[in-house]
UniProtKB/TrEMBL annotation:
It is an enzyme of class 2 (transferase). GO terms for cellular component: plasma membrane. The chain crosses the membrane at residues 27-47, 301-320. Its EC number is 2.7.7.65. Gene3D superfamilies: 3.30.70.270, PAS domain. Keywords: Membrane, Transmembrane, Transmembrane helix. It comes from the Bacteria. Signal peptide: none annotated. Residues 384-521 form the GGDEF domain. SMART domains: GGDEF. It holds the Pfam family GGDEF. This is diguanylate cyclase. One of its GO terms (molecular function) is diguanylate cyclase activity.
Length: 531
């Protein structure tokens, strides 16, 4: 039995390094996760805002396209209604009813009623001006070279025709035309009836909408020729954009739709809502710039980014300070734990010294007393035997007198080594009882077993042949007394065990030394002694 085993084991010291690293890393990880969560949440919210802004712009462009389409339809429908009435009167009336002065007054009245009209004109089969709504009748003017006149002359259809933007020959204004074919009674070409619509009428209406810095509005023929576009530029009038994405792709997919694409005219990416007119060969486009739509959102992103940067930096700084504080605290705790461990180790070393005999290296008297109390209590509780061997070096006083105390100490060390080596079980204990007396405590060992251990010690000491001129044998020997408690009663005590073993020792001394005596020896022990 190790002398320290009878003491309570010191408390385990936790892995302070692991605690320190783990706690610091967990705090840092928590701060990083918090920052990431805040950034992710803000980014998600900003992305939702972006999608919402684009959706709102898309709705605005759809509504704007619908409004422009309705305006264009109303404008051309009113003019076309006038043309239909005039064409019927021209084709079905007699010459007396269609006096030029009365017809001129009728045309002028219609132009005065409709603000979009620039003028109403009737041309003969050769292109000559027959009558118009303007004051005075220009002489020798001919419009046979105009696109609309050529169209009606070469096409027998009676549907209205919307022409390209042109400058009026009479006033020089930019106009767009809507015209119908006049037929003679036999169905041959009899001329053209024409209404001219002021481009400024469309322009004024277009300018009433806020479409942003890079927005665009467009009225074009269904063949892809521009009638009017905002931003206004004369260079756009009559320009062919049939190869652009609107006419080459999206109009083929749906007559009414919204798409995002880049303009072939100015390279601006816009949210484009188009509508093809069901009544007239017109296409209306309302296009709002994506950059304009997201301008405020981008400012919000910059603001949020700056605020989030400051917030993350603040959290990072607080997390850093918190981590440092935790590290300092855990470092201090670790230092305290290490100091405690060192103190426990020092105490253990002192306890080891206090429980060990300095000369022989065996357990000392204090250690023996504690071990005996522990094992005796256990034996009483479990009903198992417990044995004690008392050993004394024979004639040791004479040995010291003859050879000196230094030699005596060396002799005790040799005997102690033999006694210490005689026990092998963890529960056994060999100790120096006092002076030249040694003891061996054998829990769970009966008398016969204890006698065998004692006899083995006696023989091994004798085998050392340590010279001793004062001894009868001529060398150092030991005597031993053995006693065993196999049955316990209320009167059984530790003292009785020690006294009985000591009596056995005195018996061995009295019988001539260099022997083992067992107190209350049974027949098996007697047989072993005789052997």
């Amino acid at each position: 039995m190790n002398p320290m085993e009878i003491q309570a084991a010191p408390p385990a010291i936790p892995g302070t390094r692991w605690i320190k690293l783990s706690l610091s890393k967990r705090v840092a990880f928590l701060v990083v996760c918090l920052c990431i969560a805040l950034v992710a949440l803000d980014a998600w919210q900003l992305w939702r805002t972006r999608a919402f802004q684009l959706r709102e712009t898309e709705i605005a462009s759809v509504n704007l396209a619908k409004s422009l389409s309705q305006h264009a339809y109303d404008t051309f429908k009113e003019a076309d209604t006038v043309l239909v009435g005039l064409a019927e009167r021209m084709e079905n009336g007699d010459s007396n009813e269609l006096k030029f002065d009365r017809l001129h007054a009728l045309l002028a009245a219609r132009v005065a009623e409709l603000p979009q009209l620039h003028g109403l004109f009737i041309y003969g089969p050769g292109g000559a001006w027959v009558v118009n709504s303007q004051p005075g009748q220009p002489a020798r003017l001919n419009n046979s070279d105009r696109e609309y006149f050529i169209y009606h002359k070469t096409h027998s259809t009676r549907s209205p025709h919307i022409g390209l933007p042109i400058r009026s020959k009479s006033t020089g204004e930019w106009i767009v035309t809507i015209s119908r074919r006049l037929n003679a009674r036999d169905g041959t070409f009899a001329g053209v009836i024409l209404a001219t619509i002021r481009m400024d009428y469309f322009r004024e209406f277009f300018e009433s909408f806020d479409i942003g810095k890079h927005g665009a509005l467009l009225v074009a023929t269904d063949k892809g020729t521009i009638i009017l576009r905002r931003p206004f530029d004369i260079a756009y009038f009559g320009r062919d954009i049939s190869a652009g994405p609107l006419f080459s792709k999206y109009l083929h997919q749906a007559p009414v739709a919204t798409n995002i694409f880049t303009s072939s005219l100015d390279g601006v990416t816009r949210i484009n809502s188009h509508r093809r007119s069901a009544a007239y060969p017109l296409v209306i486009l309302a296009a709002l710039s994506r950059d304009d739509a997201l301008a405020n959102w981008r400012m919000d992103v910059l603001t949020h980014g700056a605020v989030m940067t400051l917030l993350v930096a603040g959290l990072g700084f607080l997390g850093f300070r918190l981590t440092r504080q935790i590290e300092r605290r855990t470092t201090a705790e670790a230092a305290l734990l290490e100091s405690r461990a060192e103190l426990l180790a020092a105490n253990e070393a002192l306890e080891q010294i206090a429980m060990q005999d300095g000369l022989t290296g065996l357990a000392n008297r204090r250690c023996f007393d504690l071990a005996l109390a522990k094992e005796f209590s256990h034996a009483r509780r479990t009903g198992t035997p417990i044995s004690l061997i008392m050993i004394d070096v024979d004639n040791f006083k004479q040995y010291n007198d003859i050879y000196g105390h230094a030699a005596g100490d060396a002799c005790l060390r040799q005997v102690g080594a033999v006694v210490g080596g005689a026990v092998n079980r963890p529960c056994d204990l060999s100790a120096r009882y006092g002076g030249e007396e040694l003891v061996v405590l054998l829990p769970g060992t009966d008398a016969a077993g204890a006698w065998c251990v004692a006899e083995s010690i006696r023989r091994q000491v004798a085998a050392l042949i340590v010279p001793h001129s004062g001894a009868a044998a001529g060398f150092v020997t030991v005597s031993a007394g053995v006693h065993t408690f196999e049955k316990f009663d209320a009167a059984s005590t530790q003292v009785q065990l020690i006294v009985a073993a000591d009596q056995g020792l005195y018996q061995a001394k009295a019988l001539g030394r260099n022997r083992v005596c067992v107190k209350e020896v049974n027949s098996r022990v007697d047989a072993l002694e005789r052997a």
